[in-house]
From TrEMBL:
This is ABC transporter substrate-binding protein. Pfam families: DUF6062. InterPro entries: DUF6062.
Length: 258
């Protein structure tokens, strides 16, 4: 049996009536990560090292700030993160600052010949290192890393249960499909966890379910737009009242729609 810490949240999420059980899992996990980052993690030296190294992406900075919880804790993490990154950028810059002066003074002819020969100048090297470091900062996030890792564990458990627990398979097959982001993640993950026959069985079931439900959501949005036509004034809304938010979620996954 797969570890319980992953199977219980998976079973709970699949018990919910929703557009994407993986979004339910991800949202719960994300909320827990935000709470943890602003709470117990501040006292964990390993976690502080990780937040100093990876920092947070825009979404997770926003989520932590907007939660209004522990502003001091957030400030402490930002403080040490900035100390580390400022030092790094400064070091890269200072190591090559001398070459900048040299390249700046290079004659016009040399500048032209460098452009033509596309030889990498010292200035190019500095730019490459700075952009590389900024890329790292832009694309790393403590919470995103944790989400990626744990969502991978959940998907492993989903495949395991699907082929070993008939009850779970029945529930899975009765769902409304997934958001496109998580549909892709499931399809990509078959390669890692399933053999050829299992992949074929799973993909057939998943795509049948997905296409039916994408059509359903599309029709619900369509009906929403028709309800703005006076001829449909008295017609019932059906499931279309919240079709706009649900369709956005079906396309993009969890969104912070107000
Ligand atoms: Zn999703
Ligand atoms: Zn993030």
């Amino acid at each position: 049996m797969k570890e319980k810490i992953y199977t219980i949240p998976v079973s709970d999420a699949f018990a919910e009536d929703c557009e994407c059980p993986l979004c339910v899992l991800e949202k719960k996990l994300e909320d827990e990560c935000i709470e943890y980052a602003l709470g117990p993690s501040l006292m964990e030296p390993d976690m502080r090292q990780e937040t100093n190294e990876k920092g947070f992406c825009k979404d997770h900075f926003e989520a932590m700030f907007n939660s209004q919880a522990n502003r001091l804790g957030l400030a402490l993490m930002i403080d040490t993160f900035m100390q580390e990154k400022n030092k790094k950028l400064q070091k890269i810059f200072e190591t090559r600052a001398g070459s900048l002066e040299k390249d700046a003074k290079a004659g016009l002819m040399k500048n032209i010949s460098n452009k033509i020969s596309s030889k990498q100048t010292e200035t190019d090297k500095l730019l490459q290192e700075l952009v590389g470091e900024l890329d790292k900062i832009e694309h790393s996030c403590t919470i995103c890393s944790k989400l990626e890792h744990t969502m991978g564990r959940y998907i492993d458990v989903i495949f395991y249960l699907y082929f070993r627990e008939p009850d779970f398979r029945e529930i899975f097959d009765s769902k409304k499909g997934f958001c496109l982001k998580h549909l892709k993640q499931l399809l990509v993950s078959t390669k890692k966890y399933l053999n050829t026959s299992e992949t074929a069985i799973f993909t057939k079931k998943l795509m049948d379910m997905q296409i039916t439900n994408l059509e359903r959501v599309e029709k619900e949005v369509d009906w929403f737009t028709k309800k703005f036509d006076y001829r449909y004034n008295d017609a019932p809304w059906g499931n279309s009242k919240d079709a706009v938010s649900r369709s956005i979620q079906k396309i993009r996954g969890n969104c912070n729609l107000k």
